[in-house]
Amino acid sequence: MPRRAYLLFFLLLTVPAWSQVEPEAEGGPIPVDDTQMMTPPPVSGMPYANAAAPEEAPNVLSARVSVNAAYITNVVSTQTAPPAPPVSPVNDDTFSLYPTFTFARSTLRRQGIVTYSPSFVFYQHTTALDTINHGASLTYQDRLSPHVTFNAEDFFYRTSNVFDQSSFFSGGGVNGSSQTSATTIVAPFAQQLTNLAHAFFSYQFARDGMIGGGGSDQVVDFPAPASSAGPASSNTGLANSNETGAWAFYNRRISRMQYMGFSYQWTRTAAQATSQQQATGQRTDTQINSLLPFYSFYFTKTASVSISGGAQHVSVTSPDSPASPASNSWSPEADVSVGYQGKRGNLAASYSRTITSGEGLLGAFNTNSANLAGGWNLFHTWIASLSLSYASTSNATPQLSTFAGGNTVSGQASITHSFRESLIVRAGYQRLHQNYSDTAIVSAIPDTSQVYGTVTYQFSKPLGK
User: Average pLDDT of 365-383?
Assistant: First the structure.
């Protein structure tokens, strides 16, 4: 298991006292007065809020147990390594048990929430996919002083079912920047480890001036199943990757609700193929440097629209092919996002045109992606949510990788009803469609969907302030 990317999660896990601040539109703390500046989405890297604004900050230790029944279309077992014959997709029923443990601590200046949730998944027919998955997350926000803030997040998923605890349907949210690569290709029923660590700080040095920066580390790994012979994850045809990034920004308030500035971003992605059958090099090293001016307008403290655009310099090399020249190119980048968070609901949407790397692919890719997510408190005990996502890729380095690219479309909708504070029922639908003809494990399952119902019992213990 990769260790470096998990370091932030376990270090922050030891912080003894955390607390919560009501988040603004993109997840940072709301200024306490007009002398303090916002941190616009293009430079914060934090996802837009995905829940209605809380009436009060939580300060609890809670636990819940969920029982889930689902019907999944086009399930295929990836547990048999080549040269075994392929398994035809089947429809299947699943039964899952999800215990979840959450610790939330808050004061007026700080927020800290730690969540851990294993899941026990059982298939009626495709029993080779029976598994125990894991999901964990950490968020921490701290206003160190009236002019210095610090934010950190860490998400970890170990899954073999895209509809279970996977970063594709469970984490990330809609982001207002390109600091974190969008998920572009998914092996729906392959074992996968994902860990994303993200942290940034901001310093307001003047009434209308701010500087800051941060870093991130993301690992995507396809470990070999116990029954697999040959190279690790030889039955996925995808690539393991480790993406490290850093950025710095200058933020200027030009009026009470308008901000502009620029950011510099650097990322390095080391990707390694998990199949010996790749036609070209087995590894690629991609470095991307970006200079992005931005503009953000805040309708209110919890509603904003942001635009950023600039140029990227991309350099890709193949350590396995030292004779091959490095690929160097310039490319435009554009990002647009909007977010709203209210007492009754939330909405976020984004579009990005950028160069990406990693996320299961070798080399660098031209990527266009669009995302929409929202939720609404219909009544006091009813909540509806909806999300849609689209991403398309084309190979920007054909001389180093034969992967042509493709597109991914996904969506989900759910409705939740609380009979009382401790008993919650949810029903929903999720669907994934992909078009990647040169990746067997994906082209074998171009479409898969799930209809599910979940019953949750939860209880909590208030903590002293």
Answer: 90
